[in-house]
Design a protein that fits this description.
This protein has 687 residues and is α/β, with parallel strands linked by helices. The chain has 27 helices and 18 strands. A hairpin with a 4-residue loop joins strand 8 (366-372) and strand 9. 41% of the residues are buried.
Length: 687
């Protein structure tokens, strides 16, 4: 029996998965997907596979990856999905198959408790900002004595979002490496060693792309030795790759440097100088640069700033003041490992500041731009396309497209745990690359995703959801809505959704395309509830961590959860706890995004149609994610309301709604109300 027969037997109605997993159902789409992945592994090929909700893509890639042998890297979209895959899905499949496979979980170093920074924080506890931080520090000290992994996700008494974690974890910038007195006990190194010894390693996209061979995290042995690499939630990869193949320097990074310089300087070199006076010029230069812009939020490309703009005077002042601080730290770097690390951090930030405004890679155009917020700023150098560099990384090319050694930065330098000396890796072996998600294609066309990552050589396939959408769901687009640009649009969406929310007894998500709309919708809903004395509760993104809000939503039942982008995907609320999803407008990227504007400009110069070839496909993929929150199982039912009439009024709207699951469609409010009423009249146990 070959592996194809093995896979068919594993997924059969009387197979090991059926015996081990409650509620297991045979899905032919899942078997076909698993066989396609097996083929990619056997041929060291690349596969781009879309699997609709309910296909069971997790088991579809776990089974062939485990059966084929060799080292496997599984990369997920978020740390929450990473934990779910490692703690639940992977063990379930492995145990069902009875395979002696060792798995490891690897996160970025900022997820692990750092003994050195914990000790420093305990010594400087008087500098903590609040009583809550003092209490959290006490809980973390207790956690230290109990944990074997140091993973902050396991510290149930301190939320992962608590500010104290920034003080007691390390980053690549402030890690002391082999100079640390706790080096042999380091949780990060322990996790790396376990990952290097494991058959299957579960990471997330951010960690994977922090450096394609994880060199910034020190785990240089992982990728070169892997035979299979699977990206789940792969639709996130183009944005993640763009972020990590670029460079940035922020006012927050510089402020952290100043804070640490003051504390460490006064602790390790108090006699050297008056440290507050030394950091003051950089602090003033940071504030002056922020004052070059008004108090709002804005994004600017370098080319949008005229020569007379005050930034061009403020930026050299910041560089000069940082250079002086860097040189001072260099003079005292030998006095302690912390001071030496501060000098390295200052030098790296200095190099990034000097590089901003001077893109160097002519064959890979970059854009220099600023992101200005009320609290600070970020200076970015962003590649316009990551397709070429990712393709070279994936295929293991030795040089860039011009045949030079520029690729040494992108391809070749890896870092060991114990030294800052770069070394040249061995030839990259052939491996299988699998990209999967429920949202990769536009009407079964993968061109947009393939071009974004240089995957033109990939085998592409799509499997629709096995759910009965015409019976389970309705797509409702209300009539008479104002234009999405109208100042009254958000209120109109809430008013149009209100009869459905009341009839449904809450149990609704209201998904918005901006944080401003979230706040406005929440305010309008709460006023409406108070005015009509409706027994409903509104939960708003930002009122607490996402898991806590979801738990509260499930517990309350009669609730409306209002959220933006972080609630459009990765949310799984099954059954009648969620039977109404309202999306305010089509999720086109904001027009003030300088990188998007540059990409569209270049596409137009090549004779393309930027709107239809780039913006519409991106909006379709995002909308499919939001719509996917509604139907999560064979017994789920509900209404998806989209308040943006461009979906039916504009020529491109047809292309968009045809990419959604085949729900029944209506523009009549009473029909949507009747559908919701029918859900409540179904016998218990039907969803």
């Amino acid at each position: 029996m070959d592996l194809q027969d093995d896979i068919r037997a594993i997924f059969a109605a009387d197979g090991p998965l059926a015996r081990a997993l409650p509620g297991y159902r045979v899905r032919h789409e899942q078997i076909e997907m698993s066989l396609a992945i097996l083929e990619a592994i056997a041929t060291s090929g690349t596969a781009v596979l879309e699997a609709g909700t309910g296909v069971g893509k997790t088991a579809a890639y776990l089974v062939p990856s485990m059966l084929a042998g060799g080292k496997v890297i599984l990369s997920t979209g978020t740390k929450a999905l990473q934990d779910q895959l490692f703690n639940r899905d992977l063990p379930n499949v492995r145990d069902a198959l009875g395979l002696p496979i060792k798995a490891a979980l690897l996160k970025g170093r900022s997820n692990y408790l750092c003994f050195h920074h914990l000790e420093r924080t305990n010594q400087d506890a008087t500098l903590l900002a609040s009583r809550q931080e003092v209490r959290d520090l006490g809980q973390i000290n207790r956690f230290r004595t109990l944990t074997s992994t140091g993973d902050k996700a396991e510290c149930a008494t301190v939320p992962e979002t608590a500010p104290i974690w920034m003080r007691v974890t390390s980053t690549r910038e402030n890690c002391l490496g082999s100079d640390c007195s706790f080096h042999s006990d380091c949780f990060v190194l322990k996790a790396r060693r376990e990952a290097q010894d494991a058959d299957v390693v579960v990471v997330n996209h951010h960690l994977f792309f922090a450096d394609l061979v994880l060199r910034e995290e020190g785990a240089t042995e992982l990728l070169p030795s892997a035979q299979t690499i699977v990206f789940d939630e792969a639709h996130q990869l183009p944005d993640t790759a763009t972020m990590f193949f670029g460079e940035s320097v922020s006012s927050a990074q510089l402020m952290d440097l100043l804070r640490d310089t003051k504390a460490i300087g006064m602790s390790h070199a108090r006699d050297a100088c008056h440290w507050p006076d030394q950091i003051a010029p950089v602090d003033k230069a940071l504030k002056d640069l922020r004052l070059c812009f008004d108090g709002g939020i804005s994004k600017w490309s370098q080319g949008q700033l005229p020569a007379s703009h005050p930034l061009w005077q403020a930026l050299p002042t910041l560089r000069d003041s940082l250079r002086e601080l860097r040189d001072l730290l260099h003079l005292h770097a030998e006095r302690s490992a912390d001071l030496a690390n501060l000098h390295r951090r200052a030098d790296e930030l200095m190099q990034r500041l000097c590089a901003w405004g001077h893109p160097e890679r002519a064959h890979e155009p970059e854009l220099c731009w600023l992101d200005v917020s009320q609290l600070g700023f970020q200076l970015h150098r962003t590649p316009i396309s990551v397709a070429d560099v990712f393709r070279r990384q994936r295929l293991g090319d030795a040089a860039g497209p011009d045949g030079d050694d520029h690729a040494a930065h992108d391809e070749g330098l890896a870092w060991s745990d114990d030294t800052d000396t770069p070394h040249t890796p061995q030839e990259v072996p052939r491996k299988a690359w699998v990209f999967t998600s429920a949202t990769l294609a536009v009407k079964n066309d993968f061109k947009h995703f393939q071009e974004a990552l240089g995957l033109q050589d990939a085998h592409c396939a799509a499997w629709s959801s096995p759910y009965d959408y015409p019976q389970q769901a309705m797509l409702y687009v209300p009539q008479g809505m104002p234009a999405p640009t109208s100042p009254d649009f958000t209120d109109a969406v809430v008013n149009a959704a209100w009869p459905l929310i009341v009839a449904n007894g809450g149990r609704a998500f209201l998904l918005c395309t901006s944080h401003r709309a979230v706040q406005r919708a929440t305010e309008t809903l709460r006023k409406r509830i108070e005015a009509e004395n409706a027994q409903l509760t509104v939960l708003m993104q930002g009122d607490g961590p996402r898991p806590m809000l979801l738990d509260e939503f499930r517990r309350l039942r009669r609730a409306v959860l209002v959220g933006s982008h972080s609630f459009w995907e990765g949310i799984d609320v099954k059954g009648d706890a969620l039977t109404l999803v309202v999306i305010d407008k089509l999720p086109f990227a904001p027009p003030d995004d300088p990188v998007l504007a540059k990409r569209m400009e270049l596409l137009e110069q090549r004779g393309g149609n930027p709107f239809m070839e780039h913006q519409v496909p991106q909006a379709i993929i995002a909308l499919k994610q939001g719509a996917g929150r509604l139907i999560r199982s064979e017994t789920d039912h509900g209404v998806l309301m989209i308040g943006d009439t461009r979906l039916v009024d504009k020529p491109y709207g047809r292309r968009i709604w045809q990419s959604l699951p085949p729900m029944r469609r209506s523009r009549v409010q009473d029909e949507a109300l009747v559908f919701l009423k029918g859900l409540q009249e179904r016998p218990a146990g039907e969803g």
